[in-house]
Amino acid sequence: xxxxxxxxxxxxxxxxxxxxxxxxxxxxxxxxxxxxxxxxxxxxxxxxxxxxxxxxxxxxxxxxxxxxxxxxxxxxxxxxxxxxxxxxxxxxxxxxxxx
Length: 99
Fold this sequence. Notes:
Mean pLDDT: 86
Helix content: over 70%
Number of helices: 1
Order of helices and strands: H
Structural class: mainly alpha
Number of strands: 0
Radius of gyration: 41 Å
Largest sheet: none
Low-confidence stretches: none
Strand content: under 5%
Distance between the termini: 130 Å
């Protein structure tokens, strides 16, 4: 019986790698690439949602400012109207005022 040489072991391991291990690694790489693509799609989806939420936040801030300005204008106009329709024709002055 002839002895097993290093070349025989190397050839056997190379054949095993080519037939068994390499196809498994290729399958694993393919699955990882699919998962990576799905992950990128999910991240893109969240980015789009974030952009929409940011737009809503800005619109809410604008609306709040506009409503505040409108309320303040109404309060100012209401107080002017009350002054105009009151029995006093002129604004009240303090006693001793030089005006």
